[in-house]
From TrEMBL:
MF annotations from Gene Ontology: 2'-deoxyadenosine deaminase activity; adenosine deaminase activity; zinc ion binding
Active-site residues, record numbering mapped to chain: 219
Gene: add
GO cellular component terms given for this protein: cytosol
Species name: Rhodococcus triatomae
Taxonomic lineage of the native organism: Bacteria, Bacillati, Actinomycetota, Actinomycetes, Mycobacteriales
Cofactors (names): Zn(2+)
Substrates-to-products reaction catalysed: 2'-deoxyadenosine + H2O + H(+) = 2'-deoxyinosine + NH4(+); adenosine + H2O + H(+) = inosine + NH4(+)
Amino-acid positions noted as binding substrate in the UniProt annotation, renumbered to this chain: 29, 31, 189
Protein name: Adenosine deaminase
Length: 370
């Protein structure tokens, strides 16, 4: 990772330098990345009166503080406000457009952004129209970024809420739109009491259609959630997966012993969509210093860096990389590896993944590595 103990650790890149690095993002929630100003604007336009304040700076601070609870369930409560203002065609398209632009401005060249269509039906839209408007917004954002000299490709993941009973319907929706910008399927929400195996029919349908999916597992709940996601549901990736460390024993000398499940995840190269800042906020880990990202990276799991919810965590891909670099002493070669890990794991055809790696990511890091 960072070389022998007698070799000085690399100087952590600055935020400005990181902004120029090409990045790939696999785990970002559309309803968790709104600009505070947009939340206020859409609330005023739609007549939503539930916001805790009417100032963008104060609202940003409120989201960050409210999400900083150490509980996934309380963390998820903050989404009531963002989802409330994402019920109209105008709102959905604006949020999606700004998402693509903001990610591109941060140097993200490929992103998979997820959202739950079933949560955006309050104003009379149906599921297909919800997806249509989000995809239209994403394409507009890609075009806007391109006009400003930034190039990004955004794929959409359709999420089903694990406490609800619409997962098969959302899986069918994902397949219906897979040639129009939807690249996969996901389930999300509180893990405890809502195991992934409750949604087996949705995952069986996705496999039957040769379609990609990821599962939120191993964030607030431990190994049983990860085991079910892999063994019963056949997930391609693990959303978070941080609790895989429950199956890893680290000795006093630093050596690690992997249990059967951890070995299987590593052997099969199952990608871990790790979200460091969010994992601290939800209580999956207590501090960034104790985050198992570095352990998993040193053990050569396929770790990826992700934002989860940029508004709630007051973060970006550049900030997540900076925090990891400052905490664990990573240099450009480490960050390049994590980025290539993500691009290898994207829900794109192989040749398209390879093209982004060879033509965008590697040349971009070659410049930074000097």
């Amino acid at each position: 990772m960072t070389g022998p103990a007698n070799v000085p650790a690399p100087i952590p890149p600055t935020l400005g330098e990181l902004g120029r690095a090409p990045k790939a993002l696999l785990h970002d929630h559309l309803d968790g990345g709104l600009r505070p100003e947009t939340v206020l604007d859409l609330a005023h336009e739609t007549g939503y009166t539930g916001l805790p304040c009417d100032d963008a700076t104060e609202l940003a601070a409120w989201f960050r503080t409210a999400a900083d609870s150490g509980s996934l369930e309380r963390y998820l409560e903050t989404f009531a406000h963002t989802v409330a203002v994402m019920q109209t065609p105008v709102g959905l398209e604006r949020v999606a457009r700004e998402c693509a632009v903001d990610l591109a401005d941060d140097g993200v060249v490929y992103a998979e952004v997820r959202f739950a269509p079933e949560q955006h039906l309050d104003a009379g839209l149906d599921l297909d129209r919800v997806v249509d408007h989000v995809l239209e917004g994403m394409r507009a954002g890609e075009s806007e970024a391109r006009a400003r000299g930034r190039h990004i490709r955004v794929g959409v993941l359709l999420t089903a809420m694990r406490h609800a009973a619409r997962s098969r319907e959302i899986a069918e929706l994902a397949v219906r739109f897979r040639d129009r910008g939807v690249v996969g399927f996901d389930i999300a929400g509180a893990e405890a009491g809502n195991p992934p195996s409750r949604h087996l029919d949705a995952f069986e349908y996705m496999r039957d259609e040769n379609a990609h999916f990821t599962i939120h597992a191993g964030e607030a709940f431990g190994l049983p959630s990860i085991h079910e996601a892999i063994a019963f549901c056949g997930t391609d990736r693990l959303g978070h997966g941080v609790r895989i460390t429950d199956d890893i024993t680290v000795a006093a000398d630093g050596s690690a012993s992997l249990g059967r499940l951890a070995n299987y995840v590593r052997d099969k190269r199952i990608p871990l969509e790790l979200c460091p800042s969010s994992n601290v906020q939800t209580g999956a880990v207590d501090t960034l210093e104790n985050h198992p990202f570095d352990l998993l990276a040193r053990l050569r799991f396929r770790v990826t860096v992700n934002t989860d919810n940029r508004l709630m965590s007051d973060t970006s891909m550049s900030r997540e990389m900076q925090r990891l670099a400052e905490t664990f002493g990573y240099g450009w070669s480490d960050l390049e590896r994590f980025t290539i890990n993500a691009m290898k794991s994207a829900f794109l055809p192989f040749d398209e993944r390879l093209e982004i790696i060879d033509d965008v990511i590697k040349p971009g890091y070659a410049v930074l590595l000097g």
